[in-house]
Amino acid sequence: MPVVGDLRVLVRLRDFRNLLAVRLLSQAADGVYQVALATYVVFSPEKQTSPTAIASAMAVLLLPYSVIGPFAGVLLDRWRRRQVFLYGNLLRAFLACVTGLLIAVHVPDWLFYASALSVTAVNRFVLAGLAASLPHVVEPGQLVTANALSPTAGTLAATAGGALAFLLRLLVGGSNALVVLLGAVLYLAAALVSLRLAIGLLGPDRHLGPDRPSVTEGVVLTVRGMAQGLRHLAERREAAQALTAMTVMRFCYGALTVMLLMLCRYAWSATESEGLALLGLAVGVSGAGFFAAAVVTPWLVGRLGTRGWIVACCAGAAVLVPSLGLFFTPGPILAAAFILGLATQGAKISTDTVVQSRIDDTFRGRVFSVYDVLFNVAFVGAAAVAALMLPPDGTSATLILGVATLYGVTAIVLGRQGRRFT
Fold first, then answer.
1. What is the pLDDT of residue 420?
2. Domain 2-415's class?
3. What is the pLDDT of residue 148?
4. What's the pTM?
5. Per-residue pLDDT tens over the stretch 372-388
6. How confident is the model at residue 2 (pLDDT cuts 50, 70, 90)?
7. Three-state DSSP string of the chain
8. Higher per-residue pLDDT: 117 or 258
9. What is the rounded end-to-end Cα distance, in angstroms, of the chain?
10. Are 251 and 410 within 8 A, CB to CB?
11. pLDDT tens digits, residue range 130-161?
């Protein structure tokens, strides 16, 4: 297959391999950390979880980054991105240790959330920086394949990290604090691997010098820079359309995630450990869908175009989500998890490629930060909507049909615009 040949070319590139290693370790640590937080918030025996509680936790952990995201983008376009990976991961390793200590001593929830908030705040810089750096280590013609391999491999690494967290939690008798410390070790490893990349390799292309702006200057630069970035995005119609479609898909994915959490917690299991095992299985099946997307997306983009493949992902989800989800039993919904993993990751690979190829490098960090903000707002908004619609056991035909309608409308609207973005 041509895809296999393209992948062989990429893995021979030393700088691409090093950047990929930073991503894999960083996102594996994210997977470990997120599972520790999820099990502490949702599956702790002493906690009575509801859709509203899940939505509140997501809001506390994600919404503030809708404010941080634009600032991250402006600074990513001024700071050496290699240094962001080094110091960002070192900081996350330290903060994860703090979170583990807070879990161990059973502090009030607000203090736990504040610590978790600090770790995931740094994620905004690291993840946006990884996306903005990719064009510096591959040729333009290799971007589709690189986007199929790199972000998807990162997602699979996060899935593997989550699985490792599940296993460790089982072995150590449900200790979330030790699981968080494992995440800290992986963050530290990511920081050390980033030292293998040259400081100036990853851009930005126009570096503004070693002096960092003051707080006031940073605020002014952020507002001005985001206005410029949004104008630049508005002039790139294809990138704006792809981001809009991806935001709708993220909203749908968020609503279904909350439903799955409630089904695993209450409808399908009698104990917290059984529910956690089912959730782990669902995460693994979804990860298999991500892997399948990495394999088939370059081939299908070559035949359908980036727009055509995103339309196909939306249309497939619109048909198959209600066909499988309305059974509200583990087997069909696990099949739906695979399909959603494939569709969501396939659309994301295409969207990443469109944004990277249509946005100038001097604006790329800002636009990817906007991308990240849209992801967070859509996911939290979906959680809030799901909290209003879901019964205590998580079974809601209305939610599934509503999500399917959103997928279908997105496919129709995007399909009318043409076949290809690039």
1. 57
2. mainly alpha
3. 75
4. 0.75
5. 778 888 988 998 899 88
6. low
7. CHHHHHHHHHHCCHHHHHHHHHHHHHHHHHHHHHHHHHHHHCCCCCCCCCHHHHHHHHHHHHCCHHHHHHHHHHHHCCCCHHHHHHHHHHHHHHHHHHHHHHHHCCCCHHHHHHHHHHHHHHHHHHHHHHHHHHHHCCCHHHHHHHHHHHHHHHHHHHHHHHHHHHHHHHHCCCCHHHHHHHHHHHHHHHHHHHCCCCCCCCCCCCCCCCCCCCHHHHHHHHHHHHHHHHHHHHHCHHHHHHHHHHHHHHHHHHHHHHHHHHHHHHHCCCCHHHHHHHHHHHHHHHHHHHHHHHHHHHHHHHHHHHHHHHHHHHHHHHHHHHHHHCCCCHHHHHHHHHHHHHHHHHHHHHHHHHHHHHCCHHHHHHHHHHHHHHHHHHHHHHHHHHHHHCCCCCCCHHHHHHHHHHHHHHHHHHHCCCCCCC
8. 258
9. 23
10. no
11. 888 988 998 888 887 887 788 778 888 988 99
Separation of alpha carbons 227 and 217, rounded Å: 15
What does the H/E/C string look like for 7-20?
HHHHHCCHHHHHHH
Residue written as tokens 């502490």? 40
